[in-house]
Amino acid sequence: MIAHYHGQVWNAAEPARSLSIGETSVRRYLDTLADVFMIRQLRPWFANISKRQIKAPKIYFRDSGLLHYLLGIRTEKDLLEHPKSGASWEGYVIEEILRTVEPDEAYFWGTYQGAEIDLVILKHNKMFGVECKRVDAPSLTPSMRIAVSDLGLKKLFVIYPGTKRYPIDKNIEAFPLDELINIGSFF
Fold it and tell me: Does the model's pTM come out above 0.85?
């Protein structure tokens, strides 16, 4: 059940209902999975802005191979056609960024109006954003523009599976996953 929540905001009520157990038990089970490093609970960042912000964590399987197994994904073709393909990419990129950058703190940010950034990183008292896009040529989205403005991000990186770095907008750069080793110099 948790595999189907990968990359989504956690809502303990639905699994609790399905399993006929209490929400407290479901939360405790999820915490245990996080404690053994199977699941990452990415907490939301709260900014003092006028928009209503999401306050529940997003959850990710830390091992994309395990996620794929639980979702019945056995081949690359299965992965590319699966509805969770984008969420799988997002979780993989987030794990790689966190391993490479070793931030002081990490969050996600989202509003109930739909603006969202996949990863907010605090490193050396500076705030950066990361957006994970499984597309050939990412372009500027309203969420990116809103996040840079409302959160005051020093820079927003859009990690994608392409091969070229290029500017998308002021302080927003498309960054290929293959160059992730070089991203640490920006922090």
Answer: yes
